[in-house]
Amino acid sequence: MAILLIRHGETPGNRDRIIQFPDTPLSDRGLEQAARLGDRLAGEPIDEIWVSDHTRAQQTAAAVERTTGVPLQVFADLGERSLGELRGRPYSELGFDPFVPGYQPPGGENWEEFHARVDRAWDQIQARDLARLDEGRADSHFAVVTHGLVLRSLFERLL
To answer: Which residues are catalytically annotated?
Structure first.
């Protein structure tokens, strides 16, 4: 059994280095990436898919849903860090790094709030993974489709 941690495909915001809104969709390239992911995972024994409430993650997860037949379960705590009023602005126009420790974006989440939310999500993932073992699903995989900063938070602090 494995927990598959997946970042969504490319968006116009990723490509053009613009801080994104939750409803930012995948680019054409991102849709192709998602389709390839779905094809790659079609033969895997995935029996549960959790996904962020952001459009780009849901579009990516939908490709896995199509090939595996496993329905998506949406979890807001898997959403990307909110940069509040900075959303929609190109990084090049900011004049500072919004990812430095201690930065509080206006109308957004500070790092402590974001990490606490990621920790809640990870606690839920671990609890569900243990429950899946108790249910006799040790031979199946658990897919989690989320965002770059969520994965960064997990990898740097918890994994």
So the answer is: 8, 80
